Amino acid sequence: MDWDDLRIFLAVARAESLSGAGRRLGMDASTVGRRIMRLEQAVGASLFAKTPQGYRLTAEGGRLVAPAEAAEKAAVAVVESTRREEGIGGQLRVGVPDGCANYLMPQVARNLAEAHPRLEIQIVALPRVVNLSKREADMAIAVSPPDTGRLTVQRLSDYRLHLAGHRDYLDRHPPITGLGDLKAHRMIGYIPDMIFDRELDYLSETGVHTAAITSNAVSVQMQAIRAGAGLGIVHDFAIPFVEGLQVILPERISLTRSFWLLRHADDRDSRRLGILADALAHGIRNEIARLEQQVFAPTDRRA
């Protein structure tokens, strides 16, 4: 049985579509489909059933997943052993919450790329937790540790958040001296029914439970705050990127959250991914510390 056919089989099983597998593999969907047909002929069984929701594994296909993943692991080990002295290359896909993706990962990716010139770094910013079981990414950063799944979980770093507004907004609205004053101000936050993790429910800690402008993306919320549209809870590590942003009531509203690094349990023995995970963790920690130090420096941004 051809390993390359098994590789394509796994991509379809994880993406649940020919087009999704093709995008991951750099092939067109018709080629993926032909290769799946060839594999089905080789094993003498249908591996997928086409449904309105996509390509679902048959019973025969489900039985092939474990040996295919074992072959995948063996192939990766061979590549790692032959390239050990050349440095790390290939593709690294990381699933990241969009706040981390926008304000931390560009600098971390720059340093990784400089250390490993042959490495292709893909940053997947999604308003949900990336599904490692379906191999949507090689590793993921989450805002809370998962309760289920065959994963290895590593705490990366705590990070802080504060209420903030742009000085253009603050100059045009009543002063804020206590939590009660916030009721007279426009708030910006997450769309309530699109909060995919309880750790993202920030506004409840301000005493204001509804927002006038909402988005499922941190970057959109930040741009609305930057435009003077209202106040919102922002990551301290994002504040240095926005000139004119001022922290409000830091003694009363101060949140701490954590980032967690998730990897598939089957990858724990991968030397390559272990090195890259350590480098990613080190980079995230350093970048959070560097940026947060700027927030309450002597020339701080408190309102």
Automatic annotation (TrEMBL):
Signal peptide: none annotated. It comes from the Bacteria. The keyword Ribosomal protein does not apply. CDD domains: PBP2_LTTR_substrate. Residues 1-58 form the HTH lysR-type domain. It holds the Pfam family LysR_substrate. Gene3D superfamilies: 3.40.190.290, Winged helix-like DNA-binding domain superfamily/Winged helix DNA-binding domain (1.10.10.10). Belongs to the LysR transcriptional regulatory family. This is LysR family transcriptional regulator.
